[in-house]
Amino acid sequence: MNLKLSKPIAFFDLETTGVNIAKDKIVEVFVLKVMPNGDKHEYYSLVNPKIPIPAETSAIHGITDEKVANEPTFFKIAFELNDFLADCDLAGFNSNYFDIPLLKEEFYRVGIDFNADNRQKVDVFKIFTKMEPRDLSSAYKFYCGKNLEDAHTAKADVYATYEILEAQISKYEGKIENDIAKLNDFTADGNFVDSGRRFIKDKGVVKFNFGKHKGKPVTEVLKKEPMYYDWMMKSEFLLDTKQKLKEIRDKLYSSN
To answer: Whole-model pTM?
Structure first.
């Protein structure tokens, strides 16, 4: 069953130096952009992270320091990649939890505000775990009847994810809809405001989701304890968390 699309959707996967969103870097990116008419366009690049790739990580995806030594840094591909993703909804496997937050961090590091808030986000992993809890290789076998060759290479994982979503829509016809906005809602994991999940929206009010102010409206805390803003901005929170905090504070003071 083909996806019903009103705008392009970008299936993407990142291979990285590790799983720490705040510190780790991209070493490989592959994007499959599917157009509403069914046309497909690819974007691929190895990336020099400018930090060592741990041996245990290289053992998983096969990308070593030597392999990326002469490849472009993320800064050199960022604007081209941002243009390729323009006006696209986003999809991936565990992408809401890992790939989208890490991609946003990389864009922030080079001065690009990659806004994912106005895009539909479909996490194929969330559909899978709600319906048939497994990993990507098992999902591919279960839904597509195929063995996943070259697992943990970005291109193989992206194409498998794309095929799985189409198979899921066919298998669960009547239970999940072939509609990107509704798939976004189905795979959403809480009403978090930032990638670091430090803020959450509760009945339209943005509140802290951690620490001594957990459950309190952010604007209320900023009014009563303005130094808390300075502490967060100087601490090791994700850049996306800091950006969202800055936007909340700027809006607060512009309305006064």
So the answer is: 0.78
